[in-house]
Amino acid sequence: MIDKIISYINNKKLIKNKIKKISAFPLEISFIMNFECNYNCTYCFAYKPKDKSEYRQHKSEEWTNRFLDIYRKYGKCRLVLTGGEPLFYKDSIDFVIKMTQYHFVSLGTNLFRDIDLIQEIISKSNHENLFITASFHPERAKIEEFVTKMKLLQNSGIKCDSTLVLYPPYLKDIDHYSNEFKSNNIPIYFFPYVGSYENRKYPENYTENELKICKKYSNAAWDKSEKEKFELPKTKNMRCFAGVKTISIYPNGDVKRCISNKKTMGNIFDKNFELFDKPRPCELDFCDCQMYWKYHLKI
């Protein structure tokens, strides 16, 4: 009985400390700027617009003004820009530059824009508030041009890295790609392919040879003979700060408490929109986003 009481008291202290820690975090906003993308990669599983009604509805100037309101109300936020392709619309360049003056910006892009626009980002943005993750897609971009743009960013002092999907047809050239990045001191992270190829489901059905290549470059590529399976954490009714310290914003302005939740909290362009005032129970049986590790009150 005494042990249970001590355990209860210790857990209460741990939860109190975690609440204090989370409360000190800046507001984290995952902003899907648009669903449109200039690429149409064979292996892409990102959501695609069903019709023009799902195309971007607000210009960058409107978004800029709204995020300045957010800055005035909540202070400096961590702004994660995704898509589609966040730089699909040309005026998004101005938006990114402006946001680095107020928020910390993490930009995920395929870096398709011409050198002159990359130079504009370099010359006008606050480098201290900008991180760029650039995805390299061999079926759409040339390695030499991509590396040139990455070096340009690096040499300017902007923090950046790159990613590449271990799509089966790419594996024969993976050593070449890796050497190009390595010889230019550009960080590159490889991720297993998730999807189907030639009637095989991946990553479960990488061949032994494919798996050998994957393991060489990615710790995430697991041996299919391993018995242990990764299980998503059960989070139903667990209190979570999603909606309080983090939100996801969609191209039409709709706000959801996290990327996995289907319910809309409201619209960011509604002047009466408010964040939740306290953590609420998670509505998902299993949390499949990073929020679990950061914002759920699990000890």
From TrEMBL:
SUPFAM superfamilies: Radical SAM enzymes (SSF102114)
Domain Radical SAM core: start-end pairs: 37-159
Pfam families: Radical_SAM
Molecular functions per Gene Ontology: catalytic activity; iron-sulfur cluster binding; metal ion binding
Keywords associated with the record: Iron, Iron-sulfur, Metal-binding, S-adenosyl-L-methionine
Gene3D superfamilies in UniProt: Aldolase class I
Protein name: Radical SAM core domain-containing protein
Organism: Candidatus Woesebacteria bacterium RBG_16_34_12
Lineage start: Bacteria, Candidatus Woeseibacteriota
